[in-house]
Amino acid sequence: MSVQARDLAVEFAYRFGRTPTVSRAPGRVNLIGEHTDYNDGFVMPAALDFATLTAASQRPDRRLRVYSMIMDETREFDLDSAPQAASGDWSDYVLGVALMLEMSGRNLAGADLIIWSDVPIGAGLSSSAALEVSVAHALLTQSGLEFDPIEIAQICQRAENDFVGMRCGVMDQYIACCGVAGHALLIDCRSLESRHVAIAPNLRLLIANSGVRHQHAGGEYNLRREACEEGVRLLSRYLGPIKALRDVTPKQLDAKRRKLPDLIYRRCRHIVTENVRVLDAERALNAGDFAACGRAMNASHVSMRDDFEITCPEVDMLAGLAQTVKGVYGSRMTGGGFGGCTVSLIEESAIDKASQILTDGYRIATGLDVDIYVCAPSDGAQLVAV
Fold it and tell me: What is the pLDDT of residues 246-273, one digit of tens each?
C-alpha cells in the first residue's frame, strides 16, 4: 500500500505542486448478514486489503478540485454554491460527502484531491463506501477536524441515501471507518455497537467475482427494502409496536405466516432467520468451530437465493463449487446481490485447490473467467505514510 500511496503523492505533486496527505479507506466483504443492516439487525463484515486512497491538500478558497485516476477525469465544485442534486456522475459520492459533512456543522476548507482505488467496482465489495469514507477522512484532515469513526460512518451513509439516492444501511461505511486487522466486526445496526470477532490466523477469506455487474442505486435493492417495510407494517397489527424486522423472532413470523402475502412472508423470513445465523456464526468463530460458522454461511446463501431472491445463476454456481472443496467451511454470496461476489471461509492450505476448482468449473459452465482474491481482514480508515 505504501508504494501506491507514494505514487499518488508523486502524481499529486506533479499536478498540483504540493505535498499531500493520503487517506485510506478499505472495501469490505460481509461474512454473513445480508440486507439485515437496514432492518436494524446484525451483520458481520470484515475490512479488506483493497482500498480507496485520497491524496489531499488544502486550498486558500472553498473550492474542491477532484481528479480520479481511475476515470481520468477532473471535477470542480464551490462549497459555497455547490449543486444540491446528484447528477449521476462518480463525483456525486465526493460532493455528497462534502455537503453532508457541512450539514453536520463542520466547516470544511477547500481542497485539491486525487483519488485512486483498487476496490473492484460493481462487485459487491463496497467501492462506494470506501470512496465516501476515504474522501471524508481526507477532507476532515485538511480542515483540521476530528474523524469520529461512527459519526462519520453515519454521515457517509446519509450521503449515499439522501444525495446519491441508494437506500443502503450503515454497514459498509461503518466497517470502512472501524475495521480491525485480523478481525471481522459483529455490528448491531440498531445501537451501532460492535464486537471484534477474531478470524483465526490459519483462515482466509476467498472472494470469487462472478463478473456479473450489479447497479444498485434504486431498482431491485430498494424494492427489497420496501418489502421489509411492508412486512413491518403488516406484522405490527398483530405483534404490537415493532420498529423493524429486528424485533420479530422466527417463531413469531411463522405464527403470522397466513396474515402476510407469500412474497412479503419470504422476504421477512430471510431477514428474521439471517439475524439468528449471524449470531450463530459469531459464537462459532469465537469457539473455534469453523464448520458451524460455515453451515450458517451456506444456509444464508440458500435463504438469499430462495426467500430474498437476490442471487443469480452465476453466484449460485460459485457458492456451490466452493462448498464441495475440502478445507472450505462455507461459501455464500456477499453484498447487495444480483451479481457480484461470493465469499468463502477457507483454510489457507486449501486456497490453491479451491481457486483451481472455481476457475475451471466456472469457465466450463459459463465460458467466463472468475476473478479470485484471497484476503485477510484489514484496518479501517487512516492516514497512510508517504
Answer: 999 999 999 999 999 999 999 999 999 9
Active site residue 172: yes
Q: If DSSP codes are grouped into helix, strand and coil, which group holds residue 21?
A: strand
Q: How many residues does the chain have?
A: 386
Q: How much is the average pLDDT of 81-98?
A: 94
Asked if 307 contacts 266 with a C-beta cutoff of 8 angstroms, the reply is: yes
Instruction: Out of 172, 247, 254, 369, pick the active-site residue.
Output: 172
- What is the pLDDT averaged over residues 297-310? 97
| Separation between Cα atoms, residue 385 and residue 56, nearest integer Å | 13
The mean per-residue pLDDT over the stretch 18-24 comes to 97
- Interacting residues of 169 by C-beta distance below 8 A, sequence separation 6+: 35, 36, 37, 38, 39, 43, 157, 189
> Could you tell me the three cell numbers for 234?
403488516
Query: What is the reported pTM?
Result: 0.92
Ranges of each domain in the chain: 2-196
Q: Mind listing the pLDDT tens digit for each residue in 141-150?
A: 999 999 999 9
SS3 content of the chain, % helix, strand, coil (to 5): 45, 25, 30
Per-position DSSP letters for 64-109, written without gaps between them: EEEEETTTTEEEEEETTS--SS--SSTHHHHHHHHHHHHHTT--PP
DSSP assignment of 28-75: EEEEE--S-GGGT-EEEEEEEEEEEEEEEEE-SSSEEEEEETTTTEEE
Arithmetic mean of pLDDT, 207-221: 77
pLDDT, residue 46, reads 97
Considering the domain 2-196, what is its CATH architecture?
A: 2-Layer Sandwich (3.30)
Determine the distance from the C-alpha atom of residue 159 to the mean position of all C-alpha atoms in its chain, rounded to a whole number. Answer: 15
Give the SS3 label for residue 167. coil
- Residue 206 burial (CB count, 10 A): 26
Whether 232 and 242 have beta carbons less than 8 Å apart is answered as yes
Whether 126 has a pLDDT exceeding 80, the answer reads yes
